[in-house]
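To the wet lab folks,

You asked to see what we're planning to order before we commit. Fair enough. Below is the target structure as tokens, and below that is the sequence we designed to fit it. If anything looks off to you, flag it before the synthesis order goes out.
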């Protein structure tokens, strides 16, 4: 039984793919599922930009940014662009202009802007330290846990001292947001949400970041159940009559009203 040669079928949207490769005047958006040829089309577009087959106007490879989401995808994209450049360069019948452009593009591959959005931004910042006001010796945070913890500490400190709005440099809109943040944190802490996330035998007791998902109304604060789970009921803020910042004693917002929040934790909202 003889073997049969199977020729790849032409995609029904081949004309649209060719148009996406050759378009120069407009932005191009491709919306398709996995394995449908988006990367292949992107590689073909890069090739056409750096060495068009009609020897028309071209772009240096170092003037093109090809951005992906993951390092794995970025590595694959860089490899496929290099392979396509080399494969095209090996073809017979190339014009002298196109061959020269392909040679230049291959030499520029190591300096090409092909990578993740993080590597793209990192390269820009390190390349212009004076303009950005950043030292080129900074580090990229891989695990945001410590950064988030530091941010929460700064927000808590600013809310306790009433200076959170000062950090926004006089921006009126952000100053209003800072005041709302102070009030929300004050209400959450009075309700019993601890100032830090703590592990115990029954699970994890939530920290102040939970306040972002707790609805706070004027004159009311969210109740917290025995092990930190947010209850559906709400109770009045008895000490101040409103959910504003509480200052004064050494404990500040981090300690004030915690006991009251636990005493009232078992009450249900009368409207439910």
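Sequence we intend to order:
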């Amino acid at each position: 039984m003889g073997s049969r040669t199977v020729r790849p079928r032409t995609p029904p949207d081949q004309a649209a793919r060719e148009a996406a490769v050759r378009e120069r005047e407009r932005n191009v958006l491709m919306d398709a599922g996995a394995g449908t040829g988006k990367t292949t089309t992107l590689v073909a577009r890069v090739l056409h930009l750096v060495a068009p087959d009609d020897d028309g106007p071209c772009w240096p490879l170092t003037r093109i940014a090809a951005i992906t989401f993951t390092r794995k995808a970025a590595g694959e994209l860089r490899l496929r662009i290099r392979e396509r450049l080399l494969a095209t360069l090996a073809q017979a019948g190339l014009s002298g202009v196109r061959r020269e452009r392909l040679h230049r593009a291959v030499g520029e591959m190591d300096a090409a802007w092909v990578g993740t959005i993080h590597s793209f931004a990192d390269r820009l910042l390190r390349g212009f330290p004076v303009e950005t006001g950043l030292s080129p010796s900074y580090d990229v945070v891989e695990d945001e846990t410590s950064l988030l913890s530091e941010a929460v500490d700064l927000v808590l400190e600013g809310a306790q001292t009433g200076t959170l709005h000062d950090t926004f440099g006089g921006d009126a809109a952000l100053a209003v947001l800072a005041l709302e943040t102070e009030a929300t944190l004050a209400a959450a802490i009075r309700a019993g949400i601890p100032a830090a996330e703590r592990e115990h035998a029954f699970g994890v007791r939530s920290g102040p970041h939970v306040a972002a998902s707790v609805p706070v109304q004027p004159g009311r604060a969210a109740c917290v159940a025995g092990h930190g789970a947010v209850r559906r009921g709400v109770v009045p803020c008895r000490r101040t009559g409103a959910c504003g910042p509480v200052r004064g004693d050494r404990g500040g917002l981090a300690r004030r009203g915690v006991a009251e929040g636990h005493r009232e934790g078992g009450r249900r909202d009368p409207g439910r």
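Structural context that might help your review: The first helix runs from residue 14 to 22. The chain has two domains: 14-132, 149-263.

Thanks,
Computational group
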